[in-house]
Write a structure and sequence with these properties.
With 129 residues, the protein is mostly helical. The protein is 80% helix and 0% strand. The protein has 6 helices and no strands.
């Protein structure tokens, strides 16, 4: 079981808004994002060089990189610009937390019991924020 990588991911992801707010106090959103993505690129390049070969096949790398640039880059730009314009990390977390819940409610016609329980758990977690 991969408990440690999962726990590390949750810790890093959940503390992102706090450290982003701190970083924006010292740099513009685009400088901060450039630094953040440079560090991520170096770490991922090192992981890709490992014996497990975590990189996708050569033919799909450009598509994966382009998709990541559009999705993660666009999301990160909007996220950092919102914080730079005064949106608090708590308010931003609430807005982002509603997004998957709203998607589920708007897209699903039926709510099986397991999915409904997950939705209620997500709403409870969002209420705690």
């Amino acid at each position: 079981m991969h408990v440690m990588p999962t726990a590390l991911f949750v810790l890093l992801w959940s503390s992102g808004a706090i450290f982003s707010r701190w970083g924006l106090n010292h740099a513009s959103p685009f400088v901060f994002l450039a630094l953040r993505f440079t560090v991520a690129l170096v770490l991922l390049a090192l992981l890709g060089r490992g014996p497990r070969g975590w990189l996708p096949e050569r033919g799909t790398r450009a598509r994966v990189a382009g998709t990541g640039l559009l999705l993660v880059g666009g999301y990160s730009n909007a996220y950092f610009l919102a914080m730079d314009h005064g949106l608090t990390p708590g308010a931003l977390a609430t807005v982002l937390g509603v997004q998957p819940i709203a998607t589920l409610v708007l897209q699903e016609r039926r709510f099986p019991l397991g999915r409904l329980a997950g939705l209620l758990l997500a709403l409870a977690g969002l209420a705690l924020v």
